[in-house]
Design a protein that fits this description.
homodimer; about 210 residues; mainly alpha; Tetracycline Repressor, domain 2; about 70% helix
Chain lengths: ~210, ~210
């Protein structure tokens, strides 16, 4: 049985391999990535990579889970201010977490590149589907709370959450692929004006 | 100087190379594609590919232009029915042109895969930027006509057209990458309910 120190050390090694994978993916892209490129970004022995992961396929699937975990947040807490909670969530999805030195857009670039390849890989697709469901679920939770509390109209929360999740995804993709640096800001303003404007319960009766 | 027959034949050959490229991309994906894979899908001599194109890079950029041309439509015609024109345009973008035997989703799959790689290639990025501008421009044209004719509220047409273009892109990406077959239908319904519902000039005054 592994001692706590060994477990801890194994966890550290895995994390270091994951960060090496991130740097290698950022530099080489998924298409051209070889395990040796990851080895070159990794400070310890390359044999440790082969000890922990069963080839590039397994490594990338694990990396994807690791990447997405960094964006995970409990989305089921109590909502006391639905408008504030909705705004915060949209901002965080569009602009990234407020952590200094956390390279959000480099991570998102890798995320979107792997997303585009997900149809070729059932395990990748399952991870992305879980993440999509989580993003939509967190927004649904906020919208349902707002409807219950009378802050929002009685909307189909899941359908609206799906629309917002799609807009977030597209704005990020547009920034990354087309170089539209202001795509997240544009999306935020358009959502405010054309979607959320009519969500206010006080504006009109249904 | 080339005779008309030779020009015609050159056009045919280029089209045949483009369709061979499409089949090879569908089968192998962009990452693993070699010019020889395209050669295997091409019925004529492989040397013709090298005669017409300067390597994989040039071939793919030309293919991208060819692919996008198939979706091009003049978007500056007179709009007599703004609601109908908007609905038709959204349907066509989300569900594909109504041409039997035109494999819209296979073409879109290739499109989205190349889109994800566009940041690596300025020529690809320029083609995608032109196409994005065209899609948004066509929607802007319909929205402006509707505003002018009093069918729609006085909205910022360009901003709304950008939001709709983003939603279309995301729904297609979600269908392709995550396997959500109903993503286009979901997006259409959500756009109707949450975006277009408040576009009606008669619904409320600004």
């Amino acid at each position: 049985m592994a001692t706590p120190e060994e477990v801890e050390s194994g966890g550290d090694t895995r994390r270091e391999i994951m960060e090496a994978t991130f740097r290698a993916l950022s530099e080489h892209g998924y298409a051209d990535l070889r395990v040796r490129d990851i080895g070159e970004e990794f400070e310890k022995s390359r044999t440790l990579i082969h000890y922990h992961f069963d080839g590039k396929h397994d490594l990338i699937a694990s990396f994807l889970e690791y990447l997405i975990e960094q964006y995970e947040e409990p989305g089921d807490g109590e909502i006391t201010d639905p408008w504030g909670a909705l705004s915060d969530r949209l901002d965080q999805c569009l602009f990234g977490p407020e952590i200094d030195a956390f390279d959000h857009w480099e991570r998102m670039t890798v995320y979107h590149e792997l997303f585009a390849h997900a149809r070729h890989d059932e395990r990748h697709r399952a991870v992305f589907n879980d993440h999509y469901a989580q993003l939509r679920g967190n927004l649904t939770h906020v919208l349902e709370a707002g409807v219950e509390q009378g802050a929002f109209h009685d909307v189909d929360a899941e359908s609206l959450a799906q629309l917002l999740t799609d807009v977030i995804h597209a704005a990020r993709a547009r920034r990354i692929s087309l170089g539209h640096e202001d795509a997240p800001e544009q999306a935020r303003e358009a959502v405010d004006e054309f979607v959320l404007d009519s969500l206010a319960a006080s504006e009109r009766e249904r």
